[in-house]
Amino acid sequence: MGRCILFVTTDQQRYDTLGCNGGTLSRTPVVDQLAAQGHRFERCHPSSVVCMPSRSTILTGQHPSAHGVWMNGVPLAQSAPSVAEELATAGYRTALIGKAHFEPLLDPFGLFAENRLGMTGAYSEPGPWFDGTRGPHRGFDHMELATHGAAGWLHYSKWLQQHHPEAVGMFYRVLDDDLEVSAAGGGDTGAPQAHRNEIPRDWYHTDWVADRTVAWLEALDAGEDFFCWMSFPDPHHPWDPPSSEVGRVNWRDVELPAGYVADPTDREAILAAKPSHWSRWYRGELVSNYEAPAKWVPATLTADQVREVNALNAVEVELVDEAIGRVLAAVERLGFADRTDVVLTTDHGELQGDYGLLFKGPYHTDGLLRLPLVWRPAPVAAAAPSTVTRPVGLVDLAATFLSIAGLATPSYMEGRALPSSDEDAAARGFDAAITEWDSELFGVSVHLRTVVADGWLLTRCDPSTVHEGTEGELYSLADDPLQRVNRFEDPSCATIRDALLERLAAHDVRAAQGAAAPGPLVAPV
Amino acid sequence: MATVRHHVVIDVAAADAWDLLGNPRRAAEWFPGITSCVVDGATRTVTLATGLSLPEELVTVDELQRRFQYSVKMPIVRSHLSTLDVLELDEASCCCSYAADADPAVMALVIGGAAALGLARAKSMLEGD
């Protein structure tokens, strides 16, 4: 018997929403305890700030420019590398329960396996593997899938339609009549994508993901090794947790987040000092991507709407924490606890009021970039708890899982097994994390490259329909933790700026083994 | 309204590519997700892998220009026109272009995106890979 891996992801969760990271709005005792027992990372960055590229990075161990999923709506190639294939080959039982999203959700032609599995009620179908063989789709011998509501063909939607059809219409309607991400407001404040959802808690997708994970674990033999990716769709918008739970956090009592700038004049001045796409989106003059409602103008966001969104988000985070606790109890009851590593993170962050903005897009500051990451090694490993402050990335997770399983890192993976401490990180050269953004949608393109290193955060705006290619952002993380003062053009910062630009240039020309061509954009998301 | 265009160069004679891509009855051979299609005069009904049935109007089937155009007719699609052109490059190669114009804009992305995968499949089929 080897070590088992329970890999827990949420969707679109900020670093500061966990108690162990200083958050005060949500109660997250389960994750806080895991952090106290294991390694808590203070600067984990995604390779992309939207779902499909970021999740593909987690699976492949490659940056988007290598795995080919350069924006949402681009499917990960069927035969792309997969850490689940590596683990299955080594004898692991493998499952992904919850949100996968390596393939587009909007799929009327039925092109993609994730939707087909839900449609047919199957949990696996054969597909081509990266090593040239065939096996279960992407290496998971069990895929039981969900997304943010009851629409579509995924397993959760079908389950709800079959067993609780009266609840299907209770969720927020994510797409409007134009099939765009809806800007419709709700809740008490009219905040976009806020909604009162009368669904009973135990029918909600958070509890469903935990229920199905427990059921899968219960079907294992005690001596088996498993890799289980439990993937919660929350706290991604829409913010529509079960109404029965909303009273946990009264939005009227919520303090405005530190990143919010209350005075519109100050806010607009901060945005004006950033590259032009920030202000243009804020004023409703630019729609560069599908991830935020196209018809919503950020400048209309009120302080009370920020409070309510943060409150609803906090409720969703608490429900996830309790669901994780329930699954950990099952791991214990089934006898896996001593040899199970638990890794918890998310795919990207959420602006959640920073600079008066919500949702996500080509806005590379800490709200979207700085992610929660906790790794509680299996108790049998007897690892010393630690806090890791050096930069790491989601690109490092695949290699970490293989390391836990005692397997070497394949040459196609660009990440490395996570460090267990700052000393380990320093010895192994963990000193930077890189995030990419590429989007081309209806005549609007944006291309960004971002690096965090040496206590600085730099973004380079490459030529696009929005940027000339000379713009950028540079922030001192120590002096300016909310990234309000853009020092890209500050002569006194030229040395650090040029050094960070050199790091990005090296990333641009790196030789990524097994790199795929950029895939086709076939759907909005 | 939005427009999306994809193209592929195929190393076969334009006439051979047109035989496949310009024949409304052969869509299921190359367009992914179409499981069957029935042509009745100027109307084609395609059935998708999801079970959806799409009625379409055949707007243009022009063998001389090698241009095929059709329009999906269903309530959720306020307007749509797809245009497939096969352009001869030389005796042994051609450029096949597929453009989707649609309202809502998302439909242009979805129909055009599926067509992009279809063009890649057609290239593979016709070049014998």
Could you give the count of β-strands of chain B? 7
So, the CATH homologous superfamily of chain B?
START domain
Going by helix content, strand content and strand pairing, the class of chain A is alpha/beta
- Span of the ends, CA to CA of chain A: 40 Å
Assign the structural class of chain B, choosing from mainly alpha, mainly beta, alpha/beta, alpha+beta, or little secondary structure. Answer: alpha+beta
What general form of chain B does the structure show? globular
Q: How many individual helices of chain B?
A: 3
Query: What is the assigned CATH homologous superfamily of chain A?
Result: Alkaline Phosphatase, subunit A
Query: Residue ranges of chain B: pLDDT <50 for 5 or more in a row?
Result: none
Number of strands of chain A: 17
Provide the CATH architecture of chain B.
2-Layer Sandwich
Sketch the major β-sheet of chain B: 7 strands, antiparallel
Total of DSSP H or I helical runs spanning 4+ residues of chain A: 15
Q: What's the number of domains of chain B?
A: 1
Oligomer: heterodimer
Strand line-up in the sheet with most strands of chain B: 1-7-6-5-4-3-2
Helix share of residues of chain B?
25-40%
Helix content of chain A: 25-40%
Order of helices and strands of chain B: EHHEEEEEEH
What does this protein look like?
The complex is a heterodimer of chains A (525) and B (129). Chain A is α/β, with parallel strands linked by helices and 525 residues long. Chain A has one domain (4-268, 301-431): Alkaline Phosphatase, subunit A, CATH 3.40.720.10. Helix content of chain A is 28%, strand content 17%. Chain A has helices at 29-37, 51-60, 64-67, 83-89, 113-120, 155-163, 205-218, 243-246, 264-272, 276-282, 303-333, 366-369, 397-404, 422-427, 494-508, and strands at 4-10, 39-45, 93-98, 126-128, 134-136, 142-145, 185-186, 191-192, 226-231, 340-346, 371-376, 386-388, 392-393, 432-441, 444-453, 456-461, 472-476. In chain A, the strands form four sheets. In chain A, strands 1, 2, 3, 6, 9, 10, 11, 12 and 13 form a nine-stranded mixed beta sheet that branches. Chain A has a four-stranded antiparallel beta sheet with strand order 14-15-16-17, covered by helices on one side. In chain A, a hairpin with a 2-residue loop joins strand 15 and strand 16 (456-461). Chain A is globular and about 60 Å long. The mean pLDDT of chain A is 97. By secondary structure, chain B is α+β, with helices and mostly antiparallel strands. Chain B has a single domain (2-127), classed as START domain (Alpha-D-Glucose-1,6-Bisphosphate, Chain A, domain 4, 2-Layer Sandwich), CATH 3.30.530. Helix content of chain B is 27%, strand content 47%. Chain B contains three helices and seven strands; from the N terminus they run E-H-H-E-E-E-E-E-E-H. Chain B has a seven-stranded antiparallel beta sheet with strand order 1-7-6-5-4-3-2. In chain B, a hairpin with a 2-residue loop joins strand 2 (34-40) and strand 3 (43-48). The model of chain B has no long low-confidence stretch (mean pLDDT 96). Classes of the chains: A alpha/beta (525), B alpha+beta (129). Chains A and B meet through helix 5 of A and strand 1 and helix 3 of B.
